[in-house]
Amino acid sequence: MEEIPAGWSLREGNLKFEDGVKYRVAAYSSKTNAILRPVDFTTKVKKDIPLDRILIQEYLSDRDKNVLLADGEFKARARLYC
After folding, report:
1. Is the model's pTM score more than 0.70?
2. What are the tens digits of pLDDT across the range 9-46?
3. Exposed, middle or buried, 20 (CB in 10 Å: 0-12/13-18/19+)?
4. What are the beta bridge partners of residue 10?
5. CA terminus-to-terminus distance, the chain
């Protein structure tokens, strides 16, 4: 999460993490002009994310849900939704 992949930037939020702060970040791809929906998290949640997973939020009809995806799952969803 501290490294932004080539071709992506943050449209919202920052990566200067401090304990006790709730973060909201949204990613943008200049290559595809894809803007991903923002994800909300705290540094506690960040510590619980395995190195090989990507945190997203699924938007359900009654609430948002954090979901951890493997790289392949994330890319498949990105192609589907973007």
Report:
1. no
2. 666 666 777 888 777 777 777 777 777 777 777 878 77
3. exposed
4. 27
5. 21
